[in-house]
């Protein structure tokens, strides 16, 4: 019995010791947990404060806004350049002078043209009003060629014919020499004279070209038409349309 009681007491003591040590360990763990919680709370508080400070700093930074710089408006000053009256008057006077000069030049041209035309007509009239023509042979030749029709010509037409009758024949003869004598006529030694007629215009054109007096040989007459169609381009041009007549000579050698 004593041994049982002794063993029971020892077991009770051991259990008590175990309970005491367990309580101590629980208390220590609780304290440690409390400390950790306190430390976390402190850290949270410190973090919160820090966040608040940061937010305040950010809010302060946001509040500080740069002031808008005042816009400098440049005033455009328009300077009115006053043209002196003398310059404007001078320009107007110069323009009027130019227009007046142009008018004067045009009038001078007109007057010069009138004077030249009048002088030409006077010289032609004076030429024909002479008692004796330059060459009586030319006048006689023209009267033979035109007959009574020659009397109806104007003084200008008569002066033109008297001056250029020989020129027509000389120019035509040059073309004849350049073209050569008709072969058939040269072989048969045929010669003769025919009279050509055409209307000559101031622009140098001709019309109604024909033979009015035949040489008696168609070869020569045809050749004369061909001659005039080439030679008329070199004839002196008249001032007005005129009928031209002259003779073409063929001499067989």
Automatic annotation (TrEMBL):
Subcellular localization, as worded in the UniProt entry: Cell inner membrane
Gene3D superfamilies listed in its UniProt record: 3.30.1150.10
GO biological process: protein transport; transmembrane transport
GO MF entry, a single one: energy transducer activity
Cross-referenced InterPro entries: TonB-dependent_transducer, TonB/TolA_C, TonB_C
Residue ranges of domain TonB C-terminal in the record: 166-253
Membrane topology summary: Single-pass membrane protein
Coiled-coil segments on the chain, per record: 19-47
Keyword field: Cell inner membrane, Cell membrane, Coiled coil, Membrane, Protein transport, Transmembrane, Transmembrane helix, Transport
GO cellular component, one term: plasma membrane protein complex
Pfam families documented for this protein: TonB_C
Superkingdom of the organism of origin: Bacteria
Similarity field: Belongs to the TonB family.
Protein name per the record: TonB C-terminal domain-containing protein
Organism taxonomic ancestry: Bacteria, Pseudomonadati, Campylobacterota, Epsilonproteobacteria, Campylobacterales
């Amino acid at each position: 019995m004593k041994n049982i009681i002794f063993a029971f007491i020892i077991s009770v003591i051991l259990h008590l010791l175990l309970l005491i040590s367990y309580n101590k360990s629980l208390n220590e763990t609780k304290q440690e947990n409390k400390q950790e919680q306190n430390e976390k709370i402190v850290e949270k508080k410190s973090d919160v404060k820090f966040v608040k400070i940061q937010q305040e700093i950010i809010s302060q930074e946001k509040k500080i806004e740069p002031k808008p710089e005042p816009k400098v408006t440049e005033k455009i000053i328009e300077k009115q350049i006053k043209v002196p009256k003398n310059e404007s008057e001078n320009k107007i006077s110069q323009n009027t002078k130019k227009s007046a000069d142009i008018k004067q030049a045009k009038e001078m041209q007109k007057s010069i043209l009138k004077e030249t035309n009048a002088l030409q007509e006077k010289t032609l009239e004076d030429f024909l009003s002479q008692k004796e023509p330059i060459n009586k042979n030319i006048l006689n030749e023209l009267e033979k060629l035109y007959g009574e029709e020659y009397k109806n010509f104007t003084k200008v037409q008569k002066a033109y014919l008297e001056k250029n009758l020989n020129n027509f024949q000389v120019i035509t003869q040059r073309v004849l020499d350049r073209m050569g004598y008709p072969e058939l006529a040269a072989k048969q030694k045929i010669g003769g004279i025919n009279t050509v007629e055409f209307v000559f215009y101031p622009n140098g054109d001709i019309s109604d070209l024909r033979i009015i007096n035949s040489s008696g040989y168609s070869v020569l007459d045809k050749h004369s038409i061909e001659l005039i169609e080439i030679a008329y381009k070199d004839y002196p041009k008249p001032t007005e349309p005129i009928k031209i007549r002259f003779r073409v000579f063929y001499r067989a050698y």
